[in-house]
Amino acid sequence: MTLQSTKTEIFEDGALSEAAVRKISAAKKEPAWLLQQRLAAFEAFEELPMPQLSYGLHVNSPVNIALNELRPVENIINHKSCSEGNAIVEDLSVAAIKYEDVLRPLITSNDFRNKLEALHSAFWNSGIFVYAPKMKSRGTAEHVNLHLQQRQTEIVAIVVVAEQNANIVVTESLTTTAAVEGNAYRIECINVKAAANATVKFATLQKLGSNANSTILRKALAEKDAAIDWVDISTGEGSMKQETITALNGEGANSTITGAFFGEGSQQLDILAKEVHNARNTKSNIRIKGALQGKAKAIVQSFTKIMKTAANSEGRQKANVLLLSDTARASPIPKLEIDNYDVKASHEAAVGQLDAEKLFYLMSRGLTSREAATLAVEGFFEPLLRELPVAELADEMRETVHNKLKADEEGLAR
Fold first, then answer.
1. What is the DSSP-derived secondary structure letter of residue 252?
2. What DSSP line would sit under 210-251, residue for residue?
3. What gap in Å lies between CA 297 and CA 323, rounded to an integer?
4. How do residues 183-215 score in pLDDT, each as one tens digit?
């Protein structure tokens, strides 16, 4: 099942005002309760500060959100509804009427950490609801493909709800349209809820252009024996700040966060992966691999938090970044916070360059220095790619790595 989108009427007023909030809500024909949520978020937006985006460690803010350039009213998107098998996809504003009991508890919150989160709640102009109803037993996974094209201002809200025993795979593809000129901005929030014994896999392929500045927040709640797997493949050229946070609230719940990225040029990437264990017998695993060439810079933060209530839980994390130039920089930051002694937890983080001995060995077998370096980088990613739950994304990453290395043959060979 594939969801496409269409653009609605263009308004002249693109300012971040209460009038703009009301225009967006009216254009999407939203119920009164959702408009009130937007207005409450707008009040918070006016009062809250911008998030702290300066990290030191040779990486400044990877996101440059110029509020005066945002045009959410001019980029309103209404998505067509579709369904296949057990999965239902609706425009989020339409779903707010049809599935109010399901959605209202998930999107009526004013617990905003900063101005950008409140801005998102007030001005989102593109919303998608993916719903997998309750099943008698877990069956074959339903697949939903979301093809989203970046416009000048994309403020996107995606909500995925999998009821008891549901099994769903959501693949999100982000690309930039050729029509976008100047700076483009993406502020996206994805909320996933997996009920008892449900399985949700959410995979993102990000291929935004160099003019795109994006900040993406992905959050999930896993109930008893539920499983939530996040996959993120970032091969775009723009700067990005991304947070992925899963709360394991039910006994026996488990989650994985798997990411792969390739940065080049002057890109700056800020990636946070966080697993919070709130219940007994829960498991999590964070695995991130990335490569940087040119003057690209990245911060990769892995955070596993095991609460006092989460006895017999297990959390693992591993982050590796490969530097392919003398001017690339990376800072992997692992963190464990454990409040219960009856747990298993581990972390690993490493930054390094291509192994000279391995390159020498490959060259002794007849490969040129460039061929040896290319093979070594591809081999660096391969163990992670083989384990991705969405095979198409692994193939996309392999192709991207190969093409970007080929484009930088001179630098890689040094």
1. T
2. TTEEEEEEEEEEE-TT-EEEEEEEE--SSEEEEEEEEEE-ST
3. 10
4. 889 999 999 999 999 999 999 999 998 888 899
DSSP letter for 25, please.
Answer: H
User: What gap in Å lies between CA 341 and CA 310, rounded to an integer?
Assistant: 10
- As a whole number of angstroms, the distance between CA 78 and CA 87 comes to 19
Strands 268-277 and 297-306: parallel
User: Which residue from 167, 286, 173 is spatially nearest to 236, judged by alpha carbons?
Assistant: 173
Please tell me which residue, 229 or 357, carries the higher pLDDT value. Answer: 229
As a whole number of angstroms, the distance between CA 358 and CA 29 comes to: 61
29-87 per-position pLDDT tens digit: 999 999 999 999 999 999 998 876 655 555 555 456 788 889 999 889 999 888 777 89
In 3D space, the residue among 122, 118, 103, 126 whose CA is nearest the CA of residue 38 turns out to be 122
Within a 10 A sphere around the Cβ of 158, how many other Cβ atoms? 22
Angstrom CA distances, 300 to 13, 170, 261, stand at 38, 24, 11
DSSP 130: E
Kindly state the DSSP code that residue 317 receives in the 8-state scheme: E
Rounded to 5, what percent of the chain is helix, strand, coil?
25, 40, 35
Residue linked to tokens 């219940």: 279
